[in-house]
């Protein structure tokens, strides 16, 4: 069985969409104003973003974007840092990984 889609409730659909497009190559294929967006990755996974007011995910909640190698993880980390995001350097844990708080109120993990 394959997971087909996930809906994230976010505080800012436009900012979340822009972030996911810029750093993770997600493609927005449809939206309704600033309240809803449908995004696809290159493997057909569907991520929908829906506007919410008091978005509070549990502390351990996150979505993950696997990378082919540590160099790719480092490059994304550096781009985020240069663009003003607070990110710690990647570290070896369960994988070579780091986390970033995305616009809209959710956390993203980038890892190998």
Automatic annotation (TrEMBL):
Q: Using the record for this protein, list the coiled-coil segments as residue ranges, or answer none.
A: none
Matches recorded under InterPro entries:
Fosfomycin_Res_Enzymes, Glyas_Bleomycin-R_OHBP_Dase, Glyas_Fos-R_dOase_dom, VOC_core
Alphabetized Pfam families for the sequence? Glyoxalase
- Domain (VOC) spans 2-112
Q: Where are the transmembrane segments?
A: none
Supply the SUPFAM superfamilies for this chain.
Glyoxalase/Bleomycin resistance protein/Dihydroxybiphenyl dioxygenase
In Swiss-Prot or TrEMBL terms, this protein is called Glyoxalase
Question: What species is this protein from?
Answer: Heyndrickxia camelliae
